[in-house]
Amino acid sequence: MAAAGSPEPGRGAAAAGVRRGPLGIPEAVFVEDVDSFMKQPGNETADVVLKKLDEQYQKYKFLELNLAQKKRRLKSQIPEIKQTLEILKHMQKKKDSTNPMETRFLLADNLYCKASVPPTDKVCLWLGANVMLEYDIDEAQALLEKNLSTATRNLDLLEEDLDFLRDQFTTTEVNMARVYNWDVKRRNKQDPSKNKA
To answer: Could you tell me which residues come within 8 angstroms of residue 123 by beta carbon, excluding any fewer than 6 positions away?
Structure first.
């Protein structure tokens, strides 16, 4: 993860000489020269290297799955926050009125109930984990606007993270192909009889 005091956790952190991208995701290094890469310690055989690259690829896939779930959750959360803000703005206009506000509210899936809401300056917001708190309309609006800006910013960061991850997929796939092709050429040089068949 990120070092303490960094402006955004996990962003741009580097540890043990490994460059890291958004969220502390290790950057896949492009293998320019396969011969010198295969001579490095820990790269005894092509199978060992391909196994390491495949593990790295699977980790990227797992991260992509988690980030995609977060993105879906945020994409559904943002419209809900906007809708709640619109309702609060409408209630704010009606709070000085003496007439009750006629509305319908969701009782269950696809089941709405008609309601008459007297003018009020208080609202209750679900915070999650079965917690609901009462707020003044102005406080609720400020909280929801803050939540909306945070959710929008997080969605933008997730998009950046997913773009970075896609680049890592491509680099890892190219590295795997280059190491595999290098191994095929090496084996063909060692056993020229297969080339003639």
So the answer is: 88, 91, 134, 135, 136, 137, 140
Distances (CA, A) of 139 to 43, 136, 146: 59, 5, 11
Spatial CA neighbour of 176 closest among 55, 53, 59, 60: 53
One-letter amino acid identity for 109? D
Please, are residues 151 and 12 in contact by the beta-carbon 8 Å criterion?
A: no
57-98 per-position pLDDT tens digit = 999 999 999 999 999 999 999 999 999 999 999 888 888 888
Average pLDDT value for the chain: 85
Phi/psi region, residue 17 (left: phi>0; alpha: psi -120 to 50; beta: rest), is: left
Residues 6+ apart with CB under 8 A from 136: 121, 122, 123
**CB within 8 Å of 122: residues ≥ 6 apart:** 134, 135, 136, 137
| CB 182 within 8 Å of CB 174 | no
Question: What pLDDT shows up at residue 13?
Answer: 38
C-beta separation of 117 from 92 below 8 A: no
Write phi, then psi, for 17 (nearest 5 degrees). Answer: 80, 0
- Cβ atoms within 10 Å of 28's Cβ, excluding its own: 22
Residue indicated by tokens 């300056």: 121
